[in-house]
Every structure is written in structure tokens, then in C-alpha cells.
């Protein structure tokens, strides 16, 4: 059987505990005339989660009626709730894992209105202040936001209209990261052509209704809705990264503009607001747009289905297809792939979970996936693969002026087949008719700004592609000038330079040649402002250039100066020149700048010539250099923790200072002694009076090694013949003493082996770091002349004197203790532990026990890997 992967959920699940509205829509039917009034029956639906049983729909609720073009308020109505019902379902399909419980309340308001004919038509509005919380495709940082639901009644020529009505089933399920399809189809009582598209969900900007506290007290959704809705225009909710009104479920989900069928791969688990608009088109004119707004809950279920995209396009440059089942259900245990060409011949098959194939020749292929053959939940599906490389969508646009036609030209190339379908969306958000199915349409933009033009193209062999291209619509054609204000020294000539598209006209034309070109030449004898007019298909723009005349060049350099040797200096002449030439040029960043950057180590005389057309002027300045005072802070050093460092500085300056990040500071001396607690930098600054006002600086870093935390290991006990692995830590060099039984005394982990019992052997390990800093640690070893054993005392005295205060196991020859447990005489467990040397302190639930006998058990594994088990009794003495 086929398992349809449809998972839309209007209300949040019971566990979500959202307390606000999850969707809404409004539609109407025309019921006839009463005199000059048009009568309509209007239906408003709102949805909320069954997890909000303590909330209520607003009753009554406000409906606003506004002029569709101007937003003028016509009337406000308060309508009583007509009915409320609860609907729910849980899928019992065994091939769906973790099917969610889907449940929500539907509130319905049905009412009649009568309106006079209006050239602009009407828009009906219902608003609530709060949607559900935690919507995944909206920007973080926003609190609860409201919702606006609308429907449109067209103008006078179509006032007897029946609105489009969505007819899709709302009790459906969507599994995250699984493919799905869901019909948002609508019906239309007038037989109008319907065009579907994703559109922005509206918020309630400016709405001052009551706020919606979370989960409290049985009030209406989002407050009492006690105020009329605000007039249009309405504004989009704040979509987050990767989402928009046109892609509310991400770029892997699309809607068919002709059928309203939504298909694709669902995004991750969460709540997503989705709004679908349907345009009613009559005789080629879009007369009204109706909307359905839903918060969809996508759950973590999966469907054991053979699921592929309907089509795969290999119409670019590659003929390789790597495809996997879209379903991620853990119930899928087998796969079978079969690829056929148009003649029905099998060209590829595989039992892998991913099919990977390079098609040898162009053509239309059918791929089939069968899953779970011979197992539970078998399924299969087909998809088409169009292998026709060389299909490249392109278009151009002529014109970019507001209120002037922009001509769009399809330039799509197709190596196979002929382009035969075009779906243009001109990206004008203020209009409802900004679309066309012509190959080379024109469109007149009513507003300026950036427009995201979209073209969907198909060809006759099945290739499809979508192209987005932003374009700027201007209120006038752009003019680019190479300069706007300049100087000239008569009788020289100057060439003006403008760029743009259209016909250029310059004025005044006195002393000008080429007045009808973008690059005329002028030779003014006095200050003159030249105007340039650009005409692009009747779209006009004007700009200007100011030419000022001078009879000489003014130029003055600053006085000679002194700088520190090697420092950069900006040369700053006072001049009205237009061009500059500096010498010498070799130590300037650019010898043609007015204010070049000079870097020199020697005394240098700089000369500059300033030019305005044929007029020039020259000036000079001397830059003298003085060396920095010598500063040497000494070599970096490394010291042990909590020790001193001796610094050694050198200088030829007359005085000096030290600066440091260490809180202990530094004495004012060329050879100070410092004791930093942490690694610190010491900056030595030297000054002199030779003319360089800046100090010479050098830095020495004193690295303080961390305190050594020497560790020799825990005290332990072994038996004769048992190898004991020692493990010291804390440094890079180790020295053990005494050497009794050790395989080495200079490594951190020597192996110890004993041939006689020892009542107490105390090892010392000396640990050193990379700088030779040292610390030591100790450990004790007892060697028993027994088989592996766990020693437990027969009595203990938990009186806090530090002697025999615990009933504890002492392991000898034991690799690890699996458990040590202590019971009362009645079998109550009072202690459980796994560590040698630690045990029960004589307390139960924090209360010290009186004298008595207790039973203990120990299970362990000895050093040979054999199980060890022992039980006994011990007396608690008071």
C-alpha cells in the first residue's frame, strides 16, 4: 500500500501547552441584492490547540470593514460566536513511528453584511493579539506577536463575487525531514481561474488589544479582543534566517501556482507559520486575493514509505544522480532501485540505500524505489529524471524607471527541446497583478526600489528551473558624473564626463563642443555651472557640474619639521591644485597624492608641484630625522612558581620607566627583581632630549610555570607475586626512592614486584617540570603473604576519633571491587560502595546507630581476573 506522507498540524500538541491562536481564514458568498446594496454571508474561522482548554475564543469578536485601496474605515462589527467544535485524530498506521495526537478547537463566526458598490472594493479584517509561542521560522528575540486574517471583496464591476474557499483537510500529519505533499486547493463559486502562492503572514502592528498572559485563567485568546482591528496596510511577521513569506518552510518546499499543491521535504521539528494566498483571476484580471494562515506543527514521527521527489532535473552540466529515500523511518530495512530509459530498458539497479548513477545519454528516465520487500510496510514509488544538459534560464530587462514600462526578454537557452512555459513574478509587493505567462512581457512598476524578479521556465522535454534576479527601479534614470566641482586655468579646455542610458543634452552651450554627447569639451572664461539632462524613454533626470576659473595655483607647505627616525609623516600642503607631483618619490606611498605618506630614515627635502590645467606652482619643506633612544628590556625568561626573576635592561636614553600587567609592579631600576604570580610582560621605555619626542620601547616576558602538583598514587596493598603498576603525575621528570621492587626509578609508571611480605613500604617520587622546578609526593604499599584477599574488620567504633571509624574493605591482590554492601539483621541495605579503604560510617539516613551486629558482602575481581566473593559479620561498638 502507499503511505501518503502528509503532516500538517494546526494546533500544538497537548504537551506544548500553547495558549494562543494557531490559525485562521475568512471567506464569503454573494447572496443577492437589496436595492443598491450587495449582500454577503461571511464565515470567519479561528483555530486553537486542545492544549489550551482553559482559554476561550473571543466572544463577541470584532470584524473591521475597510476601503481596499485607501484603508478608510467603513464600519466595525461585533459578531457572536456561532459554534465551536473539537476535532482530533491519531494515526493508527503501523508504518508511522511515533504518530502524534492531533487535536484542536475550531471557532466559527457566520454573519451577514450588506455593502454599497465601491470602485475600490472592500477588505474584511479580524485580528488577535497573540499567536502560539515558539514559532520556529520567525526571528528570535521577538515576543508573542499577533495575527491578522483578511478576505477581499472586489470593486463595483465584480461586486457580485463569491470568494475562493480553501477545502483542504486540516487533520493531517507532517513528519520532520520527510517528503510530503498537501493540497491547499480552493473552490470558487464563479469559476474564476485561481493562482496560488506563499505570502507573508500578517502581524497586528498597532493593535492595542489586551496582552495574552501565558496559560492563565480562561480568558479569551490574546486578551478580550475588545477593540476594532487597525486599518490596512498590514505588515509581515519577522521571518528568521532561511525563511520568508515566499519560503515559509525553507527552500525545499514549494507550492504549485495552478493547483495549490504543496510538495517537498519538511524542515525540522517545530512550529512554522504558513500563509497561502489564492488570487481570483477573471478575464485576465486579478479581482481579489484570499488568505489562509496556519501555524503548522511538524513532529518527530517518520513514515516507512518509499518516498522520492516527483522529478529530478539534470538539465545543467551534470548527468550524475545520487538519490536516497526521503523517508528516514527506522522501519525501513531493505531497498531496491531500478532505473529505466524511455524505451523501458533497465539501465541500472541496486540494493543499496543510496542509488548513484551517471546517465550515459540524454533522455527521460523513470526511477523506481521499492522498500521492505517481504517485510512489514512494503512500499514503492516512481519518479521522473530529466537528463537534458544545456538548459540555462536567463532574461534581460530594458528600462528601470518608475511608471514607465520595463520590457523583460527571455534569453533562456535549451540544447534539447524548446522553451514553452514562462511564469513571471515581477516582485512588486504593492500589487496583485505583477505576474505574466508571456515570453517577453512588459510591466510598469508603481513604486521604486529593489524588486526581486522571478522567472520559472519549462521546455518541451520536461526541464524546469527557477531564476531570481534583483533589479532596481528608479524614479529617474541614473546619471554618473566623473566629477562635480573642479577648477580650470583659462584658456585651457576641459572634457566633461557623464555616463547613463538615454539621450544627453548639456547647457549652456557657450564655449562647448559636443553638447549632445555624454563627453562634451568646454573652455569657460569665468565660473560656470553646466547642466546635463538625460532622457531615457521619456524618463528624465538632471545633474550639474561646477567649473571655477583661476589665474594661478595657490600652494604653501608647512614649516620644516623634525620626526623620529623611521616614523611616517603625512605631508599636508595648503593648495587649490588638482594634480600633484612630489620628489623624491621613492619613500612616498604615492607621489601623485595631495597628502602622501612619507617614511624616511634620513634628512630629506621634499618638493611638490601643484597643477591646475596649464598653471603650476612649486614649494619645498625639510623633514629632519632623529633616532629613537635605545631600549633593550633583556631576554625573556622562565621561572618556577613563587620564585624571583632578575631583569637586565640597557639604554642610551636619559631616563626610563617600566610598565607591567603584574599587580606586584616593578622597581625603578635597570636591573629590577620581580616576583610575578602569573606570566607577565614588562615594558621598558627609554626617553632622551635629542629631539625625538617618543620613547624607545622593548618588552620582556617572564613566564611563570604552574605550581607542580606531584602525585605518587593512592596507598595500596598487594600480595606476593602480584605485579603493581605505579603511576605518578605532575611533571616531565620523575625519580623514585627507594628502588625496592621497581623496574625503573626514572619513569612515571614503573612496575613493582615483591618476593617477600612488607608491612609498610613508603615510596617517594620527586617530580620536576621543564624548568627543573621540583616537588615530591609519597605512597604506601603493603605486601601480604596470602592469596588475593579483601580484609574486613570484625568490629568498628564510629566515634570520630579517627581510628577504626568505618566498616571498610581493604583489598590486597584485587584488581577492582565490584561492590561492598552492608545490611542490618533484617536484610535492610544500609551501604554500598566500590572503593578499597572506604566504607560505612554507622549512620542510617543520617542517624548514628546503636551497638549491634551487621552483615557484609563483598564481590571483587583479583589481579588474575578471577572472581572473588566473601561475606561476614561485623559488630558496631559504642
UniProtKB/TrEMBL annotation:
<dbReference type="InterPro" id="IPR000601">
    <property type="entry name" value="PKD_dom"/>
</dbReference>
<keyword id="KW-0732">Signal</keyword>
<dbReference type="InterPro" id="IPR035986">
    <property type="entry name" value="PKD_dom_sf"/>
</dbReference>
<dbReference type="InterPro" id="IPR026341">
    <property type="entry name" value="T9SS_type_B"/>
</dbReference>
<dbReference type="InterPro" id="IPR013783">
    <property type="entry name" value="Ig-like_fold"/>
</dbReference>
<feature type="domain" description="PKD">
    <location>
        <begin position="422"/>
        <end position="462"/>
    </location>
</feature>
<protein>
    <submittedName>
        <fullName>Gliding motility-associated C-terminal domain-containing protein</fullName>
    </submittedName>
</protein>
<dbReference type="Pfam" id="PF13585">
    <property type="entry name" value="CHU_C"/>
</dbReference>
<feature type="domain" description="PKD">
    <location>
        <begin position="324"/>
        <end position="387"/>
    </location>
</feature>
<feature type="signal peptide">
    <location>
        <begin position="1"/>
        <end position="18"/>
    </location>
</feature>
<dbReference type="InterPro" id="IPR022409">
    <property type="entry name" value="PKD/Chitinase_dom"/>
</dbReference>
